[in-house]
């Protein structure tokens, strides 16, 4: 029986033990993502889950945590400039990047040092989805 991929269900970002409060502040209050409940069987592991558009972002506790400074998820955003202004107004630094043709984008480090990319395609014909 052939199989097929339908996309990404969720991504997981690692964070240190005790990260939940900071994660909730950044992902809920700054990025305005909705927190979603973790299954009861996984709650003992710590961490917190969020909804980002049609996808989920799971913040998982890693006892040997090291932030991902190069590998990163990229989040497709409408009204990227509004998000940039909101993030900066809340005290976070953005790293601009104009190297991807047809897109505007920037990077932000989450509270744990993980690199996050936010981008908006300026012309949909340049981006195959």
TrEMBL record:
Superkingdom to which the source organism belongs: Bacteria
Name of the protein in question: Glyoxalase
Domain called VOC: residue spans: 7-121
Entry-linked SUPFAM superfamilies: Glyoxalase/Bleomycin resistance protein/Dihydroxybiphenyl dioxygenase (SSF54593)
PROSITE patterns noted in UniProt: VOC
């Amino acid at each position: 029986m052939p199989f097929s991929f339908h996309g990404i269900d969720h991504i997981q970002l690692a964070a240190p033990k005790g990260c939940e409060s900071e994660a909730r502040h950044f992902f809920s209050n700054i990025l305005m993502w909705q927190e979603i409940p973790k299954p009861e069987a996984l709650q003992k592991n710590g961490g917190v889950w969020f909804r980002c558009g049609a996808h989920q972002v799971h913040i998982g506790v890693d006892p040997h945590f090291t932030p991902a400074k190069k590998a990163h998820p990229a989040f497709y955003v409408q009204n990227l400039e509004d998000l940039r202004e909101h993030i900066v107004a809340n005290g976070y630094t953005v790293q601009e990047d104009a190297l991807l043709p047809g897109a505007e984008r920037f990077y932000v480090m989450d509270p744990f040092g993980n690199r996050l990319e936010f981008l908006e395609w300026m012309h949909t014909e340049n981006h195959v989805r």
